[in-house]
Amino acid sequence: MEILTAIVVMALGALTLGAALGYAAIRFKVEGDLITGKIEAILPQTQCGQCGFAGCKPYAEAIARDEAEINLCPPGGDEGARKLADLLGREFKPVSGGGDGEAAKPKLTAIIREAECIGCTLCIQACPVDAIVGAARQMHTVIDALCTGCELCVKPCPVECIDMAPVPETLATWKYAYPVIPIKSVERASDVSHNVAAMNDAESSHQKVA
Amino acid sequence: MSHYFFLLIGAVLVNNVVLVKILGLCPFMGVSKKLSTAYGMGAATTFVLTLATGASFIIDHYLLMPAGLEYLRTLSFIVTIAAIVQLTEMMIARTSPLLQQVLGIYLPLITTNCAVLGVPLINISHGYGFMESLIFGAGSALGFSLVLVLFAGIRERVNAADVPPAFKGVAIGMVTAGLMSLAFMGFAGLDR
Amino acid sequence: MLQKLFKFKGGIKPAHHKAESRGTPIAAAPLPGHLVIPLSQSAGEAAQPVVAVGDKVLKGQFIGKAEGWLSSAVHASTSGTVIAVEPRLMPHPSGLATLSVVILPDGEDRWMPLQAPDYKNMSLKSVLQYLQDAGVVGMGGAGFPSHVKMQDSAALGDLVINGAECEPYITCDDRLMRERAGEIIAGSGIIRDLLQVKRVLIGIEDNKPEAIAAMQAAVEAAGETTFSVVAVPTLYPAGGIRQLIRVLTGKEVPVDQRSTDLGIQCFNVGTALSVWRALNLGEPVVSRVVTLTGNVEQPGNWEALIGTPMNELLALARPRADTDGVIMGGPMMGIPMPACDVPVTKGSNCLIARSPTLFPPPPPEMPCIRCGACARACPQELQPFELYWWSRARQFDKAREYHLSSCIECGCCAYVCPANIPLVQYFRFSKSEIRAAAREQKMADSARARFEFKQFRAEREKAEKAEKLARAAAAQAAKLAAERDAAPEGESGAVGDAADAKQAVIAAAVERARVQRAETDSRDA
Predict the structure, then answer these.
(1) Which pLDDT value is given to residue C159?
(2) Chain A within 8 Å of B83 (Cβ-Cβ)?
(3) Which residue out of C99, C443, C456 would a mutagenesis test of the A interface target, given it has the greatest number of A Cβ atoms within 10 Å?
(4) Distance from CA of B38 to the nearest CA of A (A)
(5) Minimal Cβ distance to C96: which of A43, A146, A174
(6) How far is B66 from chain A (nearest CA, A)?
(7) B156 close contact with C: CB closer than 8 A
(8) Which of A200, B99, C186, C425 has the fewest CB atoms found within 10 Å of its own CB?
(9) Are A74 and A123 spatial neighbours (Cβ–Cβ below 8 Å)?
(10) CB contact under 8 A, C451 and A174
C-alpha cells in the first residue's frame, strides 16, 4: 500500500512537472540565434577556407552548433582562438598547424606580375573578396587595400604570375612596441678581472693577426 | 522581523554556502573566469535556488509528510530541481543565447549543484518554516552569487599578473578561494 | 581685468629649464645645404607630390596637394631645384621613411609672387579651403589641420589662444609672443571673426611675465575689447587643451566629448600667427620658430625653414661634444629622433640635444606597488596604475574600460612613479594596439561585405542564367510546335514533347556556341 502511494505521488509529481515543462518549451521557443554573428565578428573574414568550411560564415555557424573546434582559423591566429575561447567559455587551444611557439605569420598581400599576366580571369573568379580587377585578355591587378592575403588566387593562375608579399609597414599601420625592461648586467669584481683578461687576450690575438 | 534579517545576513555572510559550508564548488571554480559570466551564473543560481527551496518546502510539507514518504525526499527534490533548471535554461536561451553558450554545461549542471540540493535539506534539518526556508534559500543564493562575482573579479585581475607557470589557472584559483574562505571566517560571530 | 581662475586636478612642477634659451631674440637660421620636406605633416593622409625631379621651385610654391579634408598642403620652403622625390626618414618615433621632396636651394630664397586673399569678402568655406592650401596646421606639435578645427563654428562661445607652453625647455612660443604679439593678436582676431565667438581668452603661464606684458600691450594697441590675456599658474600640463580650458573657464570637457561641444575652440599662438600670415600676406607655412636647447653652448630660438635637417640646425647652437642624440619636443612628451639628420617639420617646436649627463638612462623598472602617486598626478583624472596593469597583460578591453583613450600621454604619471615604470610607453603601446585592432576589424567588415555581395552576385547570375535558358527553351519548343502543327503528319504524345524540349535546348546551345565563336573570330580578326 505504501509503495503504491509512493508510486502514485511520484508519478503525479512527474506528470505535473512534465506538463509545466512542455508548456514552457512552447511558450519560450527560441527563434534565430545571435551567437553566430558574434563569432563571425571575431573571425578575420579572409574567406580563405583554411578551416575546411566555405568561408567565415559557415565556420561561424559550425562553431555555434558545436560542430567545429575553435582553433581552425590560421589567419586569426592564436589571438583569434583566444577571443573565441573567451566568448564561448571554451578551453583555449593553439591554432592547429601554426604551433604555439611559432610567431604569427606576417600579413601578406597578393601581387600579380603584370607583364606575365595573360588575362585568363581565373584569379578574379577565385578571389572571395573582389580584390582583383581586370577583364578577359586584359591585364589583372590586385587592389592591395582590399586583399586579405588568403592565397586563393595563387593556385588557379596558369602562368604562376601571382606572388604573396608581406605588407610593408607604413606610418598608418606602425605600432609602438611592447616596452622592454632593459636588463642591466651587474658585474662582480671577479667577473671584471676575468673580462679584462679576456679583453687582453683578444687584443693580443689581434696583434698576432696584424 | 529582525529574526528574518539575521537569518538572511547569516546565510549570505556567516554561513556562506561556498566558503564556509564548501558546497557548490564546481560552478564556483568553473564559471568564474569572467565577471560577466559570473553575473549570469549568479543570477541563474539565485533564481533556481530560491525557487527550489520554496518548491521543496511545499512538496515536503504537503505531499511527502502527510503520506509518510520522507524517505523519498532526495529523489523528489532532485526531480523538482531538474524541472526548475530546465525552465531556467529555456528562459536563458530565449533572453540571452550568448549567456547560454557561455554557461555551457554548467547551466544544466545546476541540477547537480550540491548547494541547490543541500540548502533545502538544511532547511528541513533546521526545521525552518516556509518563510524562513525561502529567506534562507535566497540568502544562500545571494551568498553564492556574491562570492562567485568577487572571485571572478579577483581571477580576472590575477590573470593579468605574473603568476609562476606552475600556479597558473586552477591552482592559483584554489589558493585564492582558500584565502577568501579565510577572510569569510572573519564574519563568524556576526549574528550572535 | 581680473578673472576668476580654476584648478585642474593633478599636475607636476618639473624644473623649467627655460632661462637657458629665452634670453636671445629669434634669429633667422641660414639656408641649409639641402631641404627634405616630408609630405605627411598633418594628422590626415600624406599630401600628393605635384613636382618632379629637376623642377625649379620658388619659395612658397605648392609641392604637395592635400589628399582629403583632413590633409594639408605642403610648400617649398625656399627657391631651388627638386633633386629627389623619394621616401626619407622623418621625425617620427617609428623611424619609418615617408615620401619627401628634397630641394637643393639656389641661395636666392626667392618668394613666388604672393597675393593676399580678400578673406573678408570670402565665404567661410573658401577661406578654410585657402588655409588648407596654405598648409596651416596646429603649430603646438600635434599638427592637426587648422581649417578642420574651424569648420563647425556653430554655437561656439569662447576662443582659447594657447600660449601656456608648459613643457620644460621650450621657449619658442614665449619668444614669439614677446616679439610678434601684434601679429598673433591680429591672427587671433581673424580666427575670432571666422568662428564668430564672443570672447577670446589668451592663456599664458605666469613664468613668462614679458610675454604676458607684450600680449597685453598688443591687445590694448589693437583696441580689442573681447580679448583678455590671462596669466595661468605654472603647473605642467597647463597647456593641455582640457587643462587650459578648465583653468580659464572652469568647464570640464567630458570624456566622450570635444571642447567644441562645450562651445570652446582652442588654437596655439603659433597657429594664430600662421593664420595671420596666410590670410594677410598670402604666405603659406614654410618656416617655424624652433627652440634649440639642452646640451648646447648657445641655446636660443631660430626661425628655421621646414625641411631643414636637424643636425644642421642644431649646429647653430653649438652642441657639446658628448651629445648623443636629439629629442624633438620637450623632455616630457618629446620623442627621440631616429637619426640626427631628420628634417624639421611644422610640429617641431623644440630640439633638445641629448647627452648621458643631461638625460641619464632611466633606472631599472621595479614592480608597481599601487601607491597611487600616478593617480594623484594625472591631470586627466585617470588611474594610471590600472591602465598599466591591463596594458602590461595586453588586456586592451580592460584598459579601455579604464578610459585609456582619454590619456594625453603628458608623462606626469611616469615622472612621479617611485618604481620608475615607463607608464607612457605602456599606454602608447596599448593605444596603438587598440587602433590596429579597430583598423583590422574595419577591414574584416568590409571584406565580409564584399564576400557576401560576391556570393549574392553568383546566386543572382545563376538564377538569371537558368531563367534565360528556360525562356530560350520555351521559345524553341513553341517554334517547333508551330512547325509541327503546320506539318501534315502530327506525331503527338508526351514522349514526343519531352524529346522536342530536349532537342530545343540542344539546338539553343549549339546556336549560342556558334554565335560566340563567330564573335571571338571576328574580334581576333
Answers:
(1) 92
(2) yes
(3) C443
(4) 11
(5) A174
(6) 11
(7) yes
(8) A200
(9) no
(10) no
Tens-digit pLDDT profile for residues C11-60: 999 998 998 888 889 999 999 999 999 998 887 888 899 999 999 999 99
Residue showing cell 614665449: C174
Q: Do B156 and C398 touch (CB under 8 A)?
A: yes
Closest-CA distance, A195 to chain C, in angstroms, reads 24
Sheet holding C62-65, edge to edge: C48-49, C62-65, C74-75
Q: Are residues A120 and A146 in the same domain?
A: yes
pLDDT score, position B92: 81
For the record, the C-alpha cell of C427 comes out as 599606454
Q: Are A10 and B72 in contact (CB under 8 A)?
A: yes
* Contacts of A among chains (3+ CB pairs under 8 A): B, C
Given a contact cutoff of 8 angstroms between Cβ atoms, the answer to whether C411 and C424 are in contact is yes
- HSE at residue C398, side-chain half, CA atoms within 13 A, is 21
Domain regions of chain B by residue span: 13-185
How far apart (Å, rounded) are the C-alpha atoms in residues C143 and C129? 17
A191 part of contact set with chain B, CB < 8 Å: no
Strand partners, C264: C158
CA dihedral of residues C176, C182, C185, C190 (deg, nearest 10): -110
Cα–Cα distance measured from residue C237 to residue A203, given in angstroms and rounded to the nearest whole number: 53
Range name among A87-96, B127-136, C5-14, C77-86 with the lowest pLDDT average:
A87-96
Is pLDDT of B99 > 80?
Answer: no
Range of the domain at A43: 35-88
C446 chain-A contacts, CB cut-off 8 A: 146
In the numeric block, the cell 518548491 is attached to: B55
The pTM of this model reads 0.82
- CA of A173, closest CA in chain C: separation in Å? 7
| Distances, alpha carbon C408 to alpha carbons C168, C243, C348, C378, in Å | 17, 11, 18, 10
Instruction: Say whether A45 and C448 touch across the interface (CB within 8 A).
Output: yes
Chains that touch C (3 or more CB pairs under 8 A): A, B
Which residues, listed in sequence order, are joined to residue C81 by a DSSP beta bridge? C56, C104
Q: How far apart are CA C140 and CA A141, in angstroms?
A: 42
Which residues fall within 8 angstroms of residue C243, CB to CB, at 6 or more apart? C8, C11, C237, C379
Which residue among A9, A24, A35 places its CB closest to the CB of B101?
A35
Grid cell for residue C31: 639656408
CB contact under 8 A, A28 and B37: no
pLDDT at C494 (0 to 100)? 52
- Cβ <8 Å between A5 and B69: yes
Its ipTM equals 0.77
Q: Which CATH class is domain C19-29+111-328?
A: alpha beta
pLDDT band with cut points at 50, 70 and 90 for residue C520 = low
Q: Give the integer Cα–Cα distance in Å for C180 and C273.
A: 8
Grid cell locating A123: 584569379
Residue B84's nearest CA partner among B64, B54, B124, B121 is B54
C-chain CB neighbours of A184 within 8 Å are: 364
Residues contacting residue A27 through CB under 8 Å, at least 6 positions apart? none
Residues A167-180: tens digit of each pLDDT: 888 888 888 888 87
Nearest CB among B76, B90, B101 relative to A10 is that of B76
Annotated domain spans of chain C: 19-29+111-328, 373-436
Per CB-CB distance under 8 Å, the chain B contacts of C393 are: 159-161
pLDDT band at C234 (very low <50, low <70, confident <90, very high): very high
Nearest to C323 by CA among C293, C356, C300: C356
A192 assigned to some structural domain:
no
Q: Which residues of A touch C431 (CB under 8 A)?
A: 176
Greatest distance between any 2 Cα atoms in chain B: 60
Give the chain A residue nearest C397 (alpha carbons): A83
- Note whether B144 and B137 are within 8 A (CB): no
Contacts of B64 in chain A (CB under 8 A): 9
